[in-house]
Design brief:
Blueprint lengths: L2 H5 L24 E9 L9 E9 L3 E6 H11 L5 H10 L7 E5 L4 E8 L2 E8 L6 E9 L2 E10 L2 E8 L17 E7 L4 E10 L13 E2 L2 H23 L4 H13 L9
Parallel strand pairs: 6-12
Antiparallel strand pairs: 1-2, 1-11, 2-3, 3-4, 4-5, 5-6, 7-8, 8-9, 9-10, 10-11
Helix pairs in contact: 2-3, 4-5
């Protein structure tokens, strides 16, 4: 059975505005879970690419985009049968290159961006109205869905998307939304980042999609600097303790390794 046959009769839910005192939507259980495969190239000088699964969890009023590792880890932690085996399993999940959690709030078109750095959870509020789409006439079928092409420029990259009105949800991978249907495929013009929908499923769990608490609100620029400093200081402390005689050499190698991660998804 195709993804389309499974989901289309289930998709027509309405949106409503219900917010907590901190202006976040009241917690809801997801209706649909979409899994994307992302292929990415961190080093623009090296054609080698990596891939990872990402999960888009959709509720009536907001969505959460995160690494599938993070999604699975949260499920394990919230399980009533959490035990030592669960702790061991978590170790295999907490290894993502994408540590952020991106919430899209449908009312008001805004993004709540979270990432944990050390013991702090950083929170960035962003406007999601800056993505302006050009919907094109080109159409094709993908995984049984009738799709249409759209293009936009965002954060220094030109993007091409294929969306479907068969799934009338204006959402997609990463921070992308605003089209009259779910994004099925998305890639940038340099082929550095490509997202492909590989799985759609109805949610049967009543567990609500929660927002992080006790966060530190900041700007995206300050967050990226804090993350870079935290990684450098952590490596420096470990290296100084374990390899004091090779400290300078190993720290230089670390700097070179980080310099090769010169191709972030957002260039500006």
């Amino acid at each position: 059975m195709t993804m389309k046959k499974i989901l289309v009769p289930f998709l027509f839910f309405h949106y409503y505005s219900a917010f907590s005192q901190d202006n976040l939507p009241l917690l809801e259980s997801p209706t649909i879970i979409a899994v994307y495969n992302v292929t990415y190239q961190q080093d623009s000088t090296n054609i080698g690419k990596k891939s990872e699964l990402m999960t888009l969890t959709i509720t009536p009023n907001y969505s959460l985009f995160e690494s599938n590792y993070s999604h699975l880890a949260d499920s394990v932690i919230k399980s009533p049968s959490f035990n030592q085996s669960s702790v061991n399993l978590l170790g295999t999940y907490l290894r993502s290159a994408f540590t952020q959690k991106i919430y899209k709030i449908y009312t008001g078109s805004r993004i709540e961006y979270y990432d944990k750095i050390g013991q702090k959870v950083f929170h960035i509020k962003q406007d999601n109205k800056s993505i302006k789409w050009n919907i094109l006439n080109e159409k094709k079928e993908i995984s049984g869905f009738s799709c249409q092409k759209a293009a936009t420029t965002y954060a220094g990259r030109n993007w091409e998307a294929w969306f479907t009105k068969d799934i009338p949800i204006s959402d997609g991978p990463y921070k992308f939304s605003g089209l009259p249907g779910l994004i099925i495929e998305l890639k940038d013009s340099r082929n550095s980042y490509a997202f492909e929908l590989i799985k759609l499923k109805r949610n049967t769990s009543t567990v609500k999609v929660e927002f992080p608490i006790n966060t530190t609100q900041t700007t995206y620029k300050e967050y990226t600097r804090a993350k870079s400093d935290w990684l450098y200081n952590g490596v420096s402390q470990v290296t100084r303790k374990n390899s004091p005689n090779n400290y300078a050499k190993e720290m230089e190698e670390y700097k070179q390794k980080q310099a090769r991660k010169n191709n972030p998804i957002e260039l500006k």
